[in-house]
Design goal:
The protein has 14 helices and no strands. It has a single domain, classed as ABC transporter involved in vitamin B12 uptake, BtuC, CATH 1.10.3470.10. It has about 325 residues and is an all-alpha fold.
Length: about 325
């Protein structure tokens, strides 16, 4: 009971920080706007240049940042829980590279493909990439190990990125492919969000419903079986959720690694190891991180944009190395 009360307080503090970061991301950018402009853009029918920029460009962009940040963070938390691997992340385990390769193939074979088709292709690619990584990781006797999965993920990711690059060069679509794989929220619009948000919302809802089972799985699979859990079915359901969340995220922002790695470690330091608390808090912290990265990308070199993926990588690489050095316990 006490832990639930403490979590509720932390959760609402997180929501307040998320709201504050959203306002900052809406106010600051290449075009000068104010808090009053943001208020009018969101809650009135007023029209002028600043309000139109906020309403048509920044608002969908920041909503996209919130949704993708939350999705990547939750998918990373689930991956770490299922595999009991502190280095697990959708970008490090083949899902992102698989989605990127599928994206390139779609552009090459179906030049007029619409956004819904791109999203489906990303789901299929993420599935194939993950299956390749887990198949290679399970080839040796003794099952999965954190090191084996990471090595398999690195090899498969390099292979799939090479396929995407090769297709781009051969079909002369490198520019189109790189626009997606660079990672960013430029051009995010409501039509895209209308496809992505329902998928991500469904994935997060199911993740919350299965959070108790994931907690037990993350501690000990034998205990989970002893408690009557159908571990195979639960793992399959959680794996499908990860594919939906990662695939939808890649379809919107392209290649975005380290979000799913960093956020669960930060969240465990705040709320502990219970996934009933980790999943909802990961949504908030992931959204805050992505808003911050997008804000920095738009403001550090005005009027030019720094790719969000580059900002995340600058933050994430030292974090990754620290986790490797500490053996996954640095933030737990």
């Amino acid at each position: 009971m006490t832990s639930s009360i403490h979590f509720t307080i932390k959760f609402f503090i997180g929501l307040a920080l998320l709201f504050g970061m959203f306002i900052l991301a809406m106010v600051f950018g290449a075009a000068e706007t104010s808090v009053q402009d943001v208020w009018q853009a969101l809650f009135s029918n007023a029209k002028n240049d600043q309000i139109n920029i906020l309403r048509e460009i920044r608002f969908p962009r920041e909503v996209g940042a919130i949704v993708v940040g939350a999705a990547l963070a939750v998918s990373g938390a689930i991956m770490q829980g299922i595999t009991r691997n502190p280095l697990a992340d959708p970008g490090l385990l083949g899902l992102t590279s698989g989605a990127n390769a599928a994206l390139a193939i779609s552009f090459a074979l179906l030049p007029s493909i619409n956004y819904f088709g791109i999203t489906i292709a990303c789901f299929i690619g993420a599935t194939v990439g993950a299956i390749m990584v887990f198949s290679i990781g399970a080839m040796k006797k003794g099952g999965f190990s954190p090191l084996r999965l990471i090595l398999a993920g690195a090899a498969v990711s390099a292979f799939l990125y090479a396929i995407a690059d090769g297709i781009g060069i051969y079909f002369k679509i490198s520019k189109d492919v790189s626009m997606w794989t660079a990672g960013g929220l430029i051009g995010t619009n409501w039509n895209q969000l209308s496809i992505i948000i329902p998928v991500i919302s469904l994935g997060m809802l199911v993740a919350l419903l299965l959070s108790r089972q994931l907690t037990i799985l993350s501690l000990n699979e034998e205990v989970a079986v002893g408690l009557g859990q159908k571990t195979t079915q639960i793992k399959l359901a959680l794996f499908i959720i990860v594919i939906l969340l990662a695939g939808a995220s890649v379809a919107l922002v392209g290649n975005m690694v380290f979000v799913g790695l960093m956020v669960p470690h930060i969240v465990r330091a705040i709320v502990g190891t219970d996934y009933r608390f980790i999943i909802p808090m990961s949504m908030i912290v992931g959204a805050i991180l992505m808003l911050l990265a997008d804000l920095l990308g738009r403001t550090v070199n005005i009027p030019y944009e720094t790719p969000v993926a580059a900002i995340i990588a600058i933050i994430g690489l030292p974090f990754f190395l620290l986790i490797v050095r500490k053996g996954g316990g640095a933030f737990q």
